[in-house]
Design brief:
Blueprint lengths: L1 H42 L10 H9 L2 E14 L2 E14 L4 E12 L5 E14 L2 E16 L2 E11 L4 E11 L3 E11 L4 E12 L7 H7 L2 E3 L2
Parallel strand pairs: 9-10
Antiparallel strand pairs: 1-2, 2-3, 3-4, 4-5, 5-6, 6-7, 7-8, 8-9
């Protein structure tokens, strides 16, 4: 009876070791496949200059969500200069709709002359055509940072590259080093850096009592649409 019990314990141990070996093999295979998908994304034409894009199209034919990447980071460069950059916790490429869905993302747009501005959001859709960012739709704690001292916060915003306009339909908060401005509805021109709020505009300023609220809003490029 003791011998039978010992044999049974050995059987359980061998079964456990076999299951662990199977699990480790499955894990290694998953890592290899994910690595190959990551490589195909950058060599398939969506985010590389001059490639055909056939690999991405073949993947898309099999699965509408062909690519899912963790810790995603991409910089688009033209003539040796960065054009736009995105960092995200994860990214999914939807080939049929033609957009990249990103989570916990930061998008940096590089302007001529060395100026930059960046978006932070919980989720977003990046529409890219021929390696060019066309539109970004963002939601969830959206923050637009124009420089180190000025930021715009809202729940949902859209950036159109062709017009360089950022719009937001809801409540908008503009934070500066010594002021706060809030209102409903945003229209911000990234070229001229003029920010227009549609209605219900209110403001508060610190240590700037010598200037009126209207004068300060005008100097900051903030317009109240009536």
């Amino acid at each position: 009876m003791y011998l039978a019990k010992q044999v049974n314990q050995r059987h359980v141990q061998w079964l456990f070791l076999a299951m662990m070996a199977f699990y480790l093999s499955y894990l290694a295979l998953s890592i290899i496949l994910e690595s190959r998908e990551r490589k195909s994304l950058f060599s398939g034409g969506l985010f590389s200059n001059g490639a055909s894009g056939s690999q991405v199209e073949q993947l898309a034919a099999r699965d509408p969500v062909a690519l899912h990447l963790k810790e995603f980071h991409r910089v688009e460069v033209r003539d040796g200069q960065p054009i736009w950059e995105v960092k995200a916790k994860d990214a999914k490429y939807y080939s049929v709709e033609g957009f990249l869905h990103v989570s916990d993302a930061k998008v940096i747009v590089y302007r001529p002359g060395g100026q930059t501005f960046e978006f932070h959001c919980k989720a977003g859709k990046l529409y890219v055509e021929s390696n060019v960012l066309r539109r970004a739709e963002m939601e969830g704690e959206v923050a637009l940072k124009l420089d180190t001292s000025l930021s715009i916060r809202t729940a949902m915003a859209t950036y159109d590259v062709d017009t360089s306009i950022v719009t937001a339909p809801g409540l908008v908060n503009i934070d500066g080093a010594t002021f706060m401005i809030s209102g409903i509805g945003l229209n911000a021109n990234m070229l001229t850096r003029v920010v227009a709020l549609s209605k219900d505009v209110s403001s508060s300023f610190q240590h700037l009592e010598s200037a009126s609220s209207g004068q300060l809003k005008k100097s900051l490029g903030v317009l109240d649409k009536k």
